[in-house]
Write a structure and sequence with these properties.
The chain has 4 helices and 2 strands. By secondary structure, the protein is mostly helical. The protein has a two-stranded antiparallel ribbon. A hairpin with a 2-residue loop joins strand 1 and strand 2. Helix 1 packs antiparallel against helix 3 and helix 1 packs parallel to helix 4. The longest helix has 28 residues. It is elongated.
Length: 116
């Protein structure tokens, strides 16, 4: 019974590590190449290869092996260090960033003053 619970925990941990690697991979795929250079990080191809390897290794090997731990560290480094630097260089959160617009009384050419 205890081993069954431990195996379930390891399965959930494996899914979490795969999700981290997949999130990092998709995030890196949609970032611009020049943002990596401007943030003084490795280039985009390097991070795509590292994160793809982390995803494949976390899928193929047991969580108790050494390679998935290296993949987890690479995914965490991308998410915690590289991604915020890329967001800062790119000008914030990208398309999900909330833009500040004018007040509710602004028209298409500026503020509406009620004909005054």
């Amino acid at each position: 019974m205890l081993m069954l619970g431990f195996a379930g925990f390891l399965g959930i941990l494996k899914i979490i590590l795969m999700a981290l690697a997949a999130f990092g991979l998709f995030d890196a795929a949609f970032r611009r190449e020049d943002a990596f250079r401007a943030a003084d990080k490795q280039n985009k191809v390097f991070w795509l290869i590292i994160l793809a390897l982390a995803l494949v290794v976390s899928y193929l090997f047991s969580i108790l092996r050494f390679l998935p731990a290296i993949g987890a560290v690479a995914s965490i480094v991308y998410i915690v260090d590289v991604r915020p630097a890329l967001k800062q260089v790119s000008g914030g959160g990208g398309r999900w960033k909330r833009r500040r617009r004018g007040s509710s009384s602004d028209g298409p050419y500026g503020p509406y003053n009620g004909g005054r």
